[in-house]
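The material for today's practical consists of a large collection of protein records. Getting from the letters to the tokens is the skill we practise here. To make this concrete, we reproduce a full record directly below:
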Amino acid sequence: MKLLNLNSLQGRLSVLLGALLLAVSGVYVLLLAQSTDQYLAEELQRNNRSLAASVAQVLQIDSATNEIPQATLQRTFGAAMAINPSIKLYLVGLDGQILTSSAAPNEVKSARVAMPPVRAFLAGRQPLPIFGTDPRHPAVARPFSVVPLVTRTGRLHCYLYITLGGGPAPDAATSWRQSYIVGGLLRMLALAGAATLVLGVLLISLLTKNLHRLSAAVRRLHAGDYAARVEGIQPGDELAELAEAFNGMAARTEESVAALRRNDELRRELVANISHDLRTPLASIEGYTETILLRQHLLTEPERQSYLHTILKNTQSLKRLVSELFELSKLEARQTVPRPEPFSVTELVQDVLLKLEPEARARTIALEAHWPTAVPFACADIGLIERVLQNLLDNALRYTPAGGRVLVTVAAPDAQQRLTLLVTDTGRGIAPQDLPHVFDRFYRSDQVRDKTQDGLGLGLAIARRIVHLHGSELTVHSREGEGTCFAFSLPVYGG
């Protein structure tokens, strides 16, 4: 059996429970002792309530002297004490002064008896026990029995006052009885306390077991096991809420770590792609430049012009690659801040279409636009939105086969006063497994990023970042063999 670690939460709670049980038991024993004394005194006084009246029946006050003969007193006192040695008898005056005592004179330490308890006893309205003065032990209040003694004419003469308890034989019996009762109750208390302690330790163990599970999961997460979860905790308490919060945090941590790993893999892939895409034009530039330098006297003018055009084309390709990387890095770092201004969306679309018309004609692709009769101005950064349209149209032209169609649509303002722009093509579409990654910065597949095409395919990532800066979302819908549609919205000027 595993020993209890006092430094653990379970150990500290168990010790605290034990100390609390001891404190409660101590208070209980104290109250039990007081209650037992009170009960015994009540029973003693109730059973002997009429004792003084019984003794007073044999005491006769002399009519001539109004006194009780001393011989009668001694005989009566002696007979009463012979029957019950624990009592002491006193004749008490109306003012509480002790007139006669059955005790030896040297035993009587107080010459007076307090009268308020006597009057309360005779009135019979106060619950028992009523404690009065013990002349032999003035510091100890004792239960008593008292009766008034009256003359033959009915005048109150004095009181017969009897203290109960204090004798050797009855005290031993009372102590035995009290010891028996208290002993039984203490045994019951010990059994109940032990059972409570065992049950409490078991309950504490069950409660702290959930804490052990939680701490074990935290240690696993700290050690790098991001799949660590807290299991087996029933819902309904604070620990369950804590476990649920930890599981949510662990899940988000696992997702973040997975995303970081995926980004790291994509970055490595990007480096490889950049190396490939930069190496090809650089090798071409180097080769053609060396050819021109080594064979400059042997080359004809048309050959030299062809080589120079090839060098220029590769240089422009390099410039475009570097420009895209630089632009994307600025957008990622939020160094590009839009400068909104009102402009005509239809005019911007026309300008972009005119720029791309020669390329579309060369590819035998129909480049068209459609919008309502009256289109309000939009409020956005016209330069950035032009870049979005150009990137989307470049992408559409690149993946639309000859004889296809690319359409730019400007929809009427919606209820939120936003203009929606759609770029639709009749290309080959995007595979379902690639569609969720089409805007990823470093994602590249044979369908989404055709490696036979120029560039790194960062145009869509750049377009999406620009649209985000304008408070919108660039969405895509595509079906393989039918085409693709990109859409985003812009706020209406003054809307």
